[in-house]
Structure to design on (396 residues):
């Protein structure tokens, strides 16, 4: 974006760009603009904005010495460029600048200011001492493209009910599959918001999207599940994640949000002789929130079961911990098929270990059953066939 005049500038990161884009496009409604100091204090006091739940003030508070100099010397009505990674991504007309307490900001979002928490530490590094508000411009095309994709999917099947799911799929495992299938039984369309983080700790977004699409296209009813990206801004972290998920889902046109019982943001607590969760704090957000049971593999039932209905003890259960499953893959091991579908394991391990074998063709024909024809095989094919051999039980 080219600036029409030489403005002073604020330097922001991709997380801020993502949050500003959602805000400007109306996806964080009832909040539709950066909050001023009075609004921030009211949200801190009440946890509400315009009579609806909103968990913390929505502000822009970039860190850095240059930004602090700009913020402490700007005046009302001044236009500042917004620069991200060397490019002008928008302009902001200054209305108000006010001091904030970064430690309090961390507590609002994460429920703690302990810097040993990786999320707290990352957010602490990007928080400044001052917040700024005012009208701004920014490219809305990423959000508009997602909205168009969802609307088109709804129109194609005439969907009356649309359910949102927020998922990392890092990696996609059998419990994810069960949750998606279960949700399809009570809705017309599912929109999976696939988290797109800014760090390298996860599988690449493109690979996670590819595995989801493989499952959808091969094992689910056609045109009833759509996958869209959701950039993993820090505002979705911490104990308020479910509230923000519900707000975003509603504004994208979904009337239901489905989450797993072991979702990190549910936060069960005991109040007035009843078990409650953070979901009970939703006021004015017109969306139904469904909480699915936790799924495990039971070695007595020999299948995937809900912990609520399985009569066997926890010592018979295999849990679907994504971190542990991913660790197996990162070590080059194929997880058991009861944890991850073999084709998906093959896609991921082949991506993590490209060109792993000295002579793949020879290895393939030495240990795999073939039809006698010379064919080219990929590493993904090799892993799929290897998993089939692992599942052969006639000699055991």
């Amino acid at each position: 974006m080219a600036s029409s005049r030489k403005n002073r500038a604020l330097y922001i990161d991709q997380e801020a760009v993502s949050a500003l884009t959602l805000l400007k496009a109306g996806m964080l409604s009832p909040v539709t603009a950066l909050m001023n100091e009075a609004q921030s204090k009211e949200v801190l006091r009440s946890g509400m904005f315009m009579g609806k739940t909103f968990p913390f003030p929505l502000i822009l508070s970039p860190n850095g010495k240059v930004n602090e100099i700009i913020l402490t010397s700007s005046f009302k009505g001044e236009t500042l460029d917004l620069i991200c990674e060397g490019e002008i991504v928008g302009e902001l007309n200054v209305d108000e600048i006010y001091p904030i307490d970064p430690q309090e900001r961390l507590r609002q979002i994460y429920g703690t200011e302990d810097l040993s928490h990786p999320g707290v530490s990352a957010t602490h590094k990007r928080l400044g001492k001052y917040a700024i508000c005012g009208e701004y411009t920014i490219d809305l095309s990423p959000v508009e493209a997602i909205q168009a994709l969802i609307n088109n999917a709804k129109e194609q099947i005439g969907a009356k009910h649309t359910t949102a799911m927020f998922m990392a799929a890092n990696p996609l495992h059998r419990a994810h599959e069960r949750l998606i299938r279960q949700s399809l039984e009570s809705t017309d369309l599912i929109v999976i918001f696939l988290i797109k983080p800014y760090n390298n700790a996860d599988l690449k977004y493109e690979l996670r999207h590819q595995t989801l699409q493989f499952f959808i296209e091969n094992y689910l009813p056609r045109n009833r599940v759509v996958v869209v990206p959701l950039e993993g801004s820090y505002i979705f972290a911490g104990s308020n994640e479910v509230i923000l998920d519900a707000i975003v889902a509603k504004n994208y046109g979904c009337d239901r949000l489905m989450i797993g019982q072991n979702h990190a943001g549910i936060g069960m607590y005991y109040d007035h002789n009843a078990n409650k969760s953070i979901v009970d704090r939703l006021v004015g957000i017109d969306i139904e929130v469904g909480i699915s049971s936790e799924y495990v593999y039971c070695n007595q039932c020999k299948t995937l079961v809900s912990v609520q209905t399985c009569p066997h003890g926890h010592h018979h259960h295999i849990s679907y911990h994504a971190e542990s499953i991913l660790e197996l893959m990162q070590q080059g091991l194929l997880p058991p098929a009861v944890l991850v579908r073999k084709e998906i394991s093959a896609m991921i391990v082949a991506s993590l270990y490209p060109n792993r074998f000295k002579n793949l063709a020879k290895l393939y024909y030495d240990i795999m059953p073939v039809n006698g024809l010379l064919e080219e095989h990929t590493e993904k094919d090799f892993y799929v066939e290897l998993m089939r051999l692992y599942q052969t039980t006639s000699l055991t």
